[in-house]
Amino acid sequence: MSFAGKVAFVTGASRGIGRAIAVDFARQGADVALVARDAAMLEETAEASRVARAATHVHSIVADVSDAAAVESAVNSTIERLGRVDFAVANAGQAVDGLLVRMKPDDLERALAVNLKSAFYLCASVAKPMMRQRSGSIVLVSSIVGLTGNAGQAGYAAAKAGLLGLAKSVAKELGSRNVRVNAVAPGLIETAMTESLSEEARAHFLASIPLGRAGTPEDVSGVVTFLCSDAARYVTGQTLVIDGGFLM
Ligand code: NAP
Description:
Elements: E1 7-11, H1 16-27, E2 31-36, H2 39-52, E3 58-62, H3 68-82, E4 87-90, H4 105-132, E5 136-141, H5 145-148, H6 154-174, E6 179-186, H7 199-207, H8 217-228, E7 239-242
Parallel strand pairs: 1-2, 1-4, 2-3, 4-5, 5-6, 6-7
The structure holds NADP nicotinamide-adenine-dinucleotide phosphate.
NADP nicotinamide-adenine-dinucleotide phosphate is lined by residues 11-18, 36-38, 41, 64-66, 91-94, 114, 141, 143, 186, 188-189, 191-194.
């Protein structure tokens, strides 16, 4: 297994894409640290990780990633419990929708805090341990709306675009210590986040996806684990779009 002896830290691991990423890491031999606010759902991911590989060590941390101190403490407790952090995936996110002229400052703050600042806090928290061990891979989960923009999602899209600048900057800062930083930009993926999409919007999306279907969380997790694998050892500062060909 490619990740035997490695430790993966995944935020937003209680459901959806984050859960698939955690389970994929476990299946491939890594121990996993799981972060989200819902303790019961985190336990379900922990159980799924042990089903994927019985020997998986799991450290579950109930935390809000918009709190810098909570993110730092989650990383520190992972190093105490699991010994190291090799991979860090900033996946936690929340769609905060609203037209520009109607968006309240508090909504914008939430969009930036949960989707962008949280990733900054994670990069800052894992940078020193990864630099010390002279290896590491960080993946930031952005979105195609960070590349294209989207009417009604100015705050969320700004946060997701910000992640791309963050990934490149940190890739440049940490590259000399063999720490790689990349982003992924999923398109339409079937999760709780997209459940409420109107039939009209879904049909519009589907008609424009060359592969003819929405993505699954596992379509994303395979790319994230690839970026953390040795096969991607010379890849840093990149954004991989995972959208069935929607943008090209
Ligand atoms: P999801 O099913 O709603 O899952 C979101 C995850 O983030 C949950 O585990 C949630 O856990 C966690 N989370 C949200 N706010 C948090 C906070 N303040 N602190 C800690 N954890 C928090 O959505 P998803 O589709 O899997 O989304 C995962 C990532 O992919 C997000 O960054 C999203 O923006 C991105 N993305 C999704 C799509 C898509 O079509 N689904 C497309 C592009 C990008 P708790 O509620 O338990 O805290």
